[in-house]
UniProtKB/TrEMBL annotation:
It comes from the Bacteria. Gene3D superfamilies: FAD/NAD(P)-binding domain. Keywords: Flavoprotein, Oxidoreductase. This is YpdA family putative bacillithiol disulfide reductase. The keyword Repeat does not apply. It comes from Winogradskyella echinorum. It holds the Pfam family Pyr_redox_3. The gene is ypdA. InterPro entries: Bdr, FAD/NAD-bd_sf, Ferredoxin-NADP_redctase_2. PROSITE patterns: PROKAR_LIPOPROTEIN.
Length: 323
């Protein structure tokens, strides 16, 4: 197969990959964004009714206005925004093409996908972290009734639901399912609802727990998932709860194997922060850049759209300086 030559390949068409594509277009570089799923695949897989915690102007890329009807934009508005930015700027994006390997060679990088082989002078990895859930690692986790992605409440009406976790995602899911007639129990490893839960949602969940309409077991963990029940270890001992579905929203992690295979090194601790120079976003490999939330390693809350959209400009400036 002949190699396709490019100046820049961007891996991932999330908000930050799109921001990088806009920079490449501005500089007249021959670039392609390669995306294994749909455009903004992570956002597409978010809960249908989710609302961002950021206001719309903080999600804007390349100063293109993001107009929302709401104080905080919804998933649908964000999909509309990034889609319109992409189509009206005629960005070069190849969807449903997965990058398997990135390998440095004398002239840059060989990028092998499930469809093509590219030769690129520079590569930007903007692969996010939403594809790999952090597992509970308990027996029964592979049952069909267990999911690590929450979409909408309707299927859970009149069912016994265990929501695992105490973050924004878990709290949103618990409240929504409760309001659609599901019987919700939260299983929470820590002793409180997460510190980062949206300030306007926090009183709602605390009040629902206090009045008993949503049950919550703190300092507790699921030990086993069975077809009709779950076994939970609580400070008062093990209990068995009737259960139809488990929604385990315990976070996600970047694809470390892919990054390692590309030659990127990591901090030698539990955070596993990939190596990059914050002034340039260049990794330990010359010409290989990291952009967006992938930069946080296991600290997946550290970077988000609001504070990582700047990576696109930083990278473009560094590439420009080397031409
Ligand atoms: C529920 C929720 C609410 C959030 N709310 C906010 C908010 O209010 N404000 C905010 O700033 N941030 C928010 N965030 C975080 C924000 O959505 C993410 O930070 C954002 O998606 C990061 O963009 P990204 O481009 O770095 O990564 P992503 O959007 O995850 O994009 C990465 C892309 O890379 C693709 N990809 C991965 N591997 C490959 C491969 N091998 N080959 C090809 N393509 C690949 C993926 O399919 C994906 O489309 C929220 C996140 C969640 C989960």
């Amino acid at each position: 197969m002949d190699k396709i030559n490019k100046d820049v390949i961007i891996i991932g068409a999330g908000p930050i990959g799109i921001a990088c594509a806009l920079e490449c277009k501005k500089h007249n570089w021959d670039y392609t964004v390669i995306e294994k799923g749909s455009l903004t695949n992570s956002l597409f897989n978010y809960p249908l009714n989710m609302t961002f915690f950021s206001t719309s102007e903080k999600l804007e890329i390349n100063e293109i206005p993001f107009i929302s009807n709401n104080p905080k934009p919804t998933r649908n508005e964000a999909l509309e925004y990034y889609r319109r930015v992409t189509t009206s700027n005629k960005l070069n994006i190849s969807l449903y093409e997965k990058v398997d390997t990135v390998k440095q060679n004398g002239n840059g990088f060989t990028v092998v996908t499930d469809k093509k082989i590219y030769q690129s002078k520079k590569v930007i990895i903007a692969t996010g972290f939403y594809d790999i859930p952090k597992l509970l690692n308990v027996p029964g986790e592979n049952l069909e009734k267990v999911t690590h992605y929450y979409k909408e409440a309707h299927p859970y009406t009149l069912q016994n639901i265990a929501v695992v976790g105490a973050s924004n995602s878990s709290v949103d899911a618990a409240l929504e399912i409760y309001r659609k007639g599901g019987n919700v129990t939260m299983i929470i490893r820590g002793e409180t609802i997460g510190e980062r839960v949206k300030y306007w949602v926090r009183p709602d969940i605390l009040n629902r727990i206090e009045e008993g309409s949503i049950k919550a077991y703190f300092n507790s963990e699921i030990k086993e998932i069975k077809p009709d029940n779950i076994i939970v270890s609580t400070p008062e001992g093990e209990i068995t709860l009737p259960n139809d579905y488990v929604i385990a929203l315990t976070g996600y992690r970047p694809n470390f194997e892919f990054l390692k295979h590309s030659g990127i090194t990591f901090s030698n601790d539990v955070k596993q922060i990939p190596t990059y120079n914050p002034e340039t976003m260049e990794s330990n490999i010359n010409g290989l850049y990291l952009a967006g939330v992938v930069c946080g390693g296991m600290e997946t809350h550290k970077w988000f759209i609001e504070n990582s959209r700047i990576h696109a400009k930083i990278i473009a400036k560094n590439i420009q300086s080397k031409i």
